[in-house]
Amino acid sequence: MEIRSATIPADPPQNGTALTIGAYDGVHLGHRQVISEVRRLATERGLASAVVTFDRHPASVVRPESAPLLLTDTDQKLEQLATTGVDLTLIVPFDESRAGESAEDFVEEVLVRDLGARVVVVGEDFHFGHHRLGNVDLLRRMGASHGFEVLGIGLVGTGGSPARDHEQVSSTFIRRALARGDLERANSMLGRAYEIRGVADPIDVVTCGTGSWEVFVNSAILVPAHGYYACWLEDEGGFRIGTTVLIEPTVDGSGSGGATVTAHPIDAHSDLSEGPVRLSFVSFLGSLLPGEFSGGSSERLGDIASSAREALG
Fold it and tell me: Which CATH number fits domain 2-174: 3.30.43.10, 3.40.50.1970, 3.40.50.620, 3.30.1330.60?
């Protein structure tokens, strides 16, 4: 997959593009279905397939006080987009200037000039541009004069069929599921295990012995609900171990989104490097008991570790 920045001038693909636009936070099953349709149309018409996305969530600029926590950072998003088979991703910087840009200017600058759009595929409720005045109807009007076709498609359910409200696949629904500890639901909408990235720092936990790590996560990333999880933990060198992860509130409200993330190896390991790590959340193992803090008793942690070992296989 080619990655371009809208800040660096480049000629559009020779025959033009079939493309889609969006924040693409999480790159979930609904996103993948849209991209699959983009790729199908691109192949049929001899075009390049492209995704237009942003270097940050637009809400973090437009309404920062209520911007959602993210499911993926930029690196994760690009890695997941690469797995879809799309030819090109264009990253558009989103700042105050971009937020004030009209939908018409965005279409002419990004879709037409930068990418040579021939087909644009978006959700039927898609909105963009200053005050969200851009929509599918505006795209169709502009497409008639700029030579591109517009396809608006409905939301999908986890099975890929048209969704009813309670089974929609969306970044918002995934965030809600993670916030209430419904990891199974979140993972089913993502089509993979939810992953957060952070920096691991070795700690000595009295109830667990040595060999545990506190994982510090960017405060902009969504940390799942408090409780115990079965996770794979992987360092930069590709070394991976099974862990039980405890997410609990911090005493002073600091840490990763006001939570402390602690990973305990299921079996004794000493080869994990401190530094950047990935945590893949496979299974929710249980909530914190009333008054439970800093890992509970050794007996409870032993039971949790057994459940994690079973969940991770």
Answer: 3.40.50.620
